[in-house]
Amino acid sequence: MNRFAWVLLPAALLHAESPQVKRGAEIFATSCAVAYCHGPNGTAGRAPQLAGRAFKARDVFGIVLSGRPGTSMPSFATQLKSEDVEAVAQYVASLSGPAAVEAAKPGVRLMPASVREGKALFFDAVRMGGCGKCHELEDRGSPVGPDLSKLMPEKFHNPRANSATHIVTAKPADEQPFPGLVLEQTPEVVRVYDLSSPLPVLRTFQPAQVHVTPGGVWSHAAAVQNYSDAELDAIAGYLTWVVQAGTAK
Amino acid sequence: MQRHLRDSVIQLSMRFLTLLALLGSTLFAADVATLNDWPSYGGTHSALRYSALDQINTSNVKTLAPAWIFQTGDYENGLQATPIVIDGIVYLSTSNAWVFALDGSSGRVIWEYHFELGKGLGYGKQNRGVAVGHGHVFLGTADNHMVALDQKTGAEQWRVNVEDSRQCGCNITGAPLVVKDIVVTGVTGGDSAHRGYLTAFDVNTGRMRWRFYTIPGPGEPGHETWPGDSWRLGGGSTWMTGSYDPALNLLYWGVGNASSDLNASKRRGDDLYTASIVALDPATGKLRWHYQEVPQDVWDYDAVFELYLVDLPLKGRTRQVVMQANKTGYVWILDRATGEFLKAFPFAKNINWVKGITEDGKLVGRLEPELGTSKLVCPSVAGAKNWNQGAYSPRTGYLYLPVQELCNDLVARDEDVPEGADSTGGNWVIKAPPDGKQEGYVAAYDPLTGEKKWTYPVPTWILASVLATAGDLVFTGDPEGDFFALDAKTGTRLWTFPTGAGHRGSAVTYAIGGRQYVATPTGWGSIAAGAHKALWPNGPTPRPGSALVVFALPEVK
Predict the structure, then answer these.
(1) How many domains, in total, are found in chain B?
(2) Is the bond into A228 cis (omega within 30 degrees of 0)?
(3) Contact A72 B537 (CB under 8 A)
(4) Across the strands, what pairs with B51?
(5) Residue A17 — pLDDT band, cuts 50, 70, 90?
(6) Which of B74, B153, B380, B554 is deepest in the core (most CB within 10 A)?
(7) Which chain A residue lies closest to B533 (C-alpha atoms)?
(8) CA–CA separation, B214 vs B277, rounded Å?
(9) Distance CA B168, CA B197 (A)
């Protein structure tokens, strides 16, 4: 079947499955999709997404029966009859559909322990001035500052010296000026990050409400002051690893 | 003789003081009740969900009829919000973080704003309402942003990513609270490996003013109640909305369960300030006092729910109290100036997690989950009451609560989960109580005596908030789609309107040009949607939707 045929198929037909799968869907809705777990139709709550992942029914059957030790996935052995577990397994397998191939992720490179330590420091939730507050990497953090995966690794080894070439000074009409990073500047709108707060604030102005000039009182050295030299070295190790992993793809 | 005279003087003084106290509480009553507006999440900062409006009352409620209906168009996950009403304009938010300003008399859209949610939605797309103040409308989002909009136009003014939702497994589902020149938001994450907090922002600039971690860090008092590194990911979320006493200048907030929820093996200690009520200085976020209801919680017993600020004669004198009814099945009453425990009384029938609570607040006879052995514990992790709020009427002196009689089989489990991941520490299966039936009801309690004054049973359960008015009416809605009014004194059902979709939101009342309106969100959704079908498999399936249905008495021509 070509992909246009898929588009033309009514949604209902895609799920016009056997009574067993239908039964599985009912059990799934009341046992697996509840309490923040796998979400409606397996589209993820806070437990993993199940839809589109090309699971095999026999693997799902085993996991539902025994649970996954060390995680919040319990065993349903005492709660569901065997035929119901089988129905759920068939249903979950049926969720794979045409999206499964697309969702299948390339192999992930294992991260060495020292790199993991750098990553933990980069995204340290306990540290108010952590790197992740301004940089997004590997689907973590906030994309306020530059994408570090695009930088040359030598930049990582003295983060205190990093010059901040894009820093501006934003002066709103009735406020003190603040150091900022412009996200968007058009004749209609100015969107600029206020970097004076421990959590960067994305401000939105009409152009007449704010005056933006190049340069400002902000330094990367101050931004990373909560990290020791050793910690910054560990972070550099992590960033180098990310860049090299990106190059390897 | 002299002694006699002195006694008379004392008696006179006592009478004068009593009179002063009465006057004082009368004045206070005006602050705790809403009038034309519904300015804050719980009504006023006292969070009683009580309105002084009485145009709609027990004698005429049977003629109450729809005035207008607003369909939000966001039908993905029901409608859980409390509408905020100021100067005749209704501010309503939906589960996908859309915000509407509506004309309160016609439902006409004045402006709308659609936030674009990112990835990593923590505890799902749910939004319990906005806060309005200083010319801004404040929105917390399911991807953990705090957003300020222009109250007049809906234009975005600032936004802050409070913490990366993908990393923390947390987000914002509760309504923010404006106190003076700050806006305060809590965070979910109590069932994740996460350390909870409150964050305060400058209303105008969005700059962070302070953050209060609900789990003290190294060197702070209370840190010693967490062994090893357990403090780093110990839960203590703040997912509902607090209260504020302007006279005492104290901000009150409830703190959620400890994590891992059902297994305390890595956090043997009191685990401060989880399952606690905290009072903070709103200027600095510094702790003024705390009271922990459940030390070393192992039942997922959040203490995050609404905090009613009322004055009650207790232990010989009028006390300024903070009162909370929560998952534990108890109503907790503290002195809100000092945090002193005054009393706790049970409001649910099925309670076995403790045998009782002593007169000084100590838990007696804890029934704790164990590794590998299942135990039936009541109330369930869903609580004898969940986040959907009760109401307190100063007229009747009753506390009106939505109650559910449910238990659960609990079994603890050892886990070692990374930051932000699910950290339940065990499993629960919700069950009917051992000797009773699985049931839901609205009930009225006298907090002075702990006595239940009336019970109004419903077919399943009540997952919508309760609204009380000076018309001696109590409004709420059920999953089957009926919105109804009860007599606040007797619990007699006086009026019903089928809105067509299940009720998960919080009704409010307001007035424009002398006409009183009652507005209720309608639209089933959230994690309760699946749980409902599991608990009541043979009943009707509650209908999704997302509309604000607004009622008024017929206009006199």
Answers:
(1) 1
(2) no
(3) no
(4) B34, B469
(5) low
(6) B380
(7) A30
(8) 10
(9) 12
Range of the domain at B116: 60-552
Predicted local confidence at residue B333, as pLDDT: 98
pLDDT for res B22: 43
**pLDDT (tens digit per residue) in B327-365:** 999 999 999 999 999 999 999 999 999 999 999 999 999
With bands split at pLDDT 50, 70 and 90, how would you rate the model's confidence at B222?
very high
Alpha-carbon span A192 to A86, nearest angstrom: 54
Interchain proximity B124–A36, CB inside 8 Å: yes
**B390 and B466 Cβ atoms separated by less than 8 Å:** yes
Among candidate residues B239, B234, B192, B199, the one with its CA nearest the CA of residue B216: B234
| Interchain CB distance below 8 Å, B423 and A125 | no
Task: Pick A75 or B221 by higher pLDDT.
Answer: B221
Tell whether the model's pLDDT for residue A12 goes beyond 90. Answer: no
Candidate from B124, B159, B164 with C-beta closest to A141: B164
Q: What is the pLDDT of residues B522-549, one digit of tens each?
A: 999 877 777 888 889 888 999 999 999 9
Q: What's the pLDDT score for residue B10?
A: 43
> Is residue B50 one of the residues assigned to a domain?
no
Shortest alpha-carbon distance between residue B160 and chain A (Å) = 5
A101 burial type by CB count under 10 A (0-12 exposed, 13-18 middle, 19+ buried): exposed
Check B124 against A45: CB less than 8 A apart.
yes
Q: Residue A160 burial (CB < 10 Å; 0-12/13-18/19+)?
A: middle
CATH of the domain at B240: 2.140.10.10
Q: Which of A34, A47, A203 sits opposite B206 (nearest CB)?
A: A203
Q: Is residue B293 part of a domain?
A: yes
Chain A residues within 8 A of B531 when measuring between CB atoms: 30, 34-35
Tokens found for residue A107: 């192999």
Q: Which residues contact B513 (CB under 8 A, 6 or more apart)?
A: B88, B105
- Nearest-by-CA chain B residue for A200: B160
pLDDT-derived band at A45 (thresholds 50, 70, 90) equals: low
Question: Which pLDDT score is estimated for A14?
Answer: 41
The three-state secondary structure class of A30 is helix
Average pLDDT across chain B, whole number: 93
Distance from CA of B259 to the nearest CA of A (A): 12
The larger pLDDT score, comparing residue A92 to residue A180, is at A180
pLDDT band, very low/low/confident/very high, at A3 (cuts 50, 70, 90): very low
Closest-CA distance, B164 to chain A, in angstroms, reads 5
Name residue, tokens 């439902």: B107
Question: Which of helix, strand or coil describes residue B22?
Answer: helix
Interface test with A, best of B121, B422, B424 (most A CBs within 10 A): B422
Residue B8 has pLDDT above 90, yes or no: no
| Cβ-Cβ contacts under 8 Å, A70 against chain B | 414-417
Phi, psi (rounded to 5 degrees) for B88 = 80, 5
The answer to whether residue B18 sits within a structural domain is no
**Tell me: the pLDDT tens digits for B412-458?**
999 888 888 888 899 888 899 998 789 999 999 999 999 999 999 99
- How close, in Å, is residue B208 to chain A by CA atoms? 6
Instruction: With beta carbons under 8 A apart, name residues in chain A contacting B122.
Output: 46
Contacts of B195 in chain A (CB under 8 A): 125-126
Note the pLDDT of residue A38: 75
Chain A residues at the B interface, defined by Cβ less than 8 Å, are 29-31, 33-36, 39-40, 45-47, 70-72, 74, 79, 123, 125-126, 128, 132, 139-142, 175, 194, 196-204
User: Between B156, B162, B211, which is nearest A204 by CB?
Assistant: B156
Residues of A in contact with B192 (CB under 8 A): 46
Cross-chain CB nearest to B205 (options A79, A175, A198): A175
Q: What is the mean pLDDT of residues B385-394?
A: 97
* β pairing state of A210-214 and A168-172: antiparallel
Q: Please check whether residue B391 lies inside any domain of the structure.
A: yes
**Residues of B forming the active site:** 300
Of A34, A46, A202, the CB nearest to B169: A46
Confidence class for position A46, pLDDT limits 50, 70, 90: low
